[in-house]
Amino acid sequence: MNDNLDMIYGIHPVMEALRSKKRNVTQLYVSDSKAGHRAVEEIIRLAKRQNVKIDRIDNKTLDRLTRNANHQGVMAKVQPIKLMKLSTALYESDGNKKDLWLAVDEMTDPQNLGAIIRSAACLGFSTIILPQRRTVGITPAVYKVACGAIENINIVEVANLSAALNDLKEEGFWVYGADMDGQPITQTDYASPAVLVIGSEGFGIREKTAENCDQIISIPQRGGVESLNASAAASIIMYDMMAKVQLKK
């Protein structure tokens, strides 16, 4: 698998890669045990239309290729995800006064990142900013959890998140950081375009990152209940932002 191609697995991720056609799918692996499965047969049909090489293999081989991941009987080789430059994403956003972005600060849990990307795409966020260091990248595990949503959202990689946030502010974006000590979202009326910053599990956003936010916001929670994890908190805040920004006249 050292051919500089991405490896993705799972019915929804592989299906979305074939449907979106944003990246070239070069090879499809299908487990013999999935013969006749409706969704898998649809994947095979799409692959044939795009002249993708299809290999039928046994389940043990597929387990080995995916390192025993939950592959659901399918795996594909695809061209690597095209990471955007911040300047390119800003150019595409120009003029969209209701544009919503997301940035993650030192998030290392692939489950959380994948879930956040999925929610962001579903809730109308156009772009996600990922720092190059101390943040999990778009791994096969992240892609699987995101259920193919990565194909429908811009991924921007930056060397310095604080500098990127400053650049966004200069371009008219408002930056909101999520932290338990922030202003409740029930009392927040977001300005836009806007970017939401979500921190790592257990640590939140870094102090330096918080200094570059226009406002720190939080989710009101009842006492005696453990705090929400990063992906759950991000989904709630993203929905609140979408409802107040994108749906208002």
TrEMBL record:
Domain RNA 2-O ribose methyltransferase substrate binding: 7-84
One GO cellular component, as annotated: cytosol
InterPro entries: Alpha/beta_knot_MTases, Ribosomal_eL30-like_sf, rRNA_MeTrfase_TrmH, SpoU_MeTrfase, SpoU_subst-bd, tRNA_m1G_MTases_N
Keywords of the record: Methyltransferase, Transferase
Annotated GO MF terms: RNA binding; RNA methyltransferase activity
Superkingdom to which the source organism belongs: Bacteria
Record-linked SUPFAM superfamilies: alpha/beta knot, L30e-like
Extent of the signal sequence: none
UniProt xrefs under Pfam families: SpoU_methylase, SpoU_sub_bind
Biological processes, Gene Ontology terms: methylation; RNA processing
Transmembrane stretches, start-end: none
Keyword flag Transferase: yes
Similarity comment: family membership: Belongs to the class IV-like SAM-binding methyltransferase superfamily. RNA methyltransferase TrmH family.
NCBIfam families listed in its UniProt record: rRNA_methyl_3 (TIGR00186)
Annotated protein name in UniProt: 23S rRNA (Guanosine(2251)-2'-O)-methyltransferase RlmB
Organism the protein comes from: Candidatus Avelusimicrobium gallicola
